[in-house]
């Protein structure tokens, strides 16, 4: 469902006014105040995709271990949301581009001689 753009739009319309969904999103935003909006949107989309496809994969098993699946997903999603943010200045990344599947661009433009910087959740920078 998440990979089909028209169904993604339909799901977004369905959940836009869902009180529980909005409470979860608001809570995540409060927990990740330093995460740039475009990055948050991209990682939210990654999270939805991970949950849908991983659960579908587990569902194909004869006897899925749902408790273990939930624990693994929670760990993975926490890691995804708290991961450092790479400074992609000059990589031609826009908020619009993260709402769709990003093509593999191979990284920064060839003319960029700078070392990518990552920003940890606390806001400090480190070389990659």
From TrEMBL:
It comes from the Bacteria. Residues 100-128 are annotated as: Disordered. Residues 111-128 have a biased composition (Polar residues). This is MftR C-terminal domain-containing protein. The lineage of its organism: Bacteria, Bacillati, Actinomycetota, Actinomycetes, Micromonosporales.
């Amino acid at each position: 469902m998440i990979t089909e753009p028209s169904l993604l739009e339909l799901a977004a319309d369905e959940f836009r006014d869902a009180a529980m969904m909005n409470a979860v999103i608001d809570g995540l935003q409060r927990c990740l105040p330093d995460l740039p909006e475009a990055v948050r949107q991209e990682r939210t989309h990654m999270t939805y995709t991970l949950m849908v496809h991983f659960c579908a994969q587990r569902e194909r098993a004869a006897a899925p271990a749902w408790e273990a699946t939930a624990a693994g997903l929670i760990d993975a999603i926490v890691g995804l949301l708290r991961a450092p943010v790479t400074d992609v200045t000059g990589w031609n990344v826009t908020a619009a581009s993260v709402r769709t599947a990003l093509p593999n661009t191979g990284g920064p433009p060839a003319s960029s001689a700078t070392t990518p910087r990552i920003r940890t959740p606390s806001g400090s920078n480190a070389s990659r």
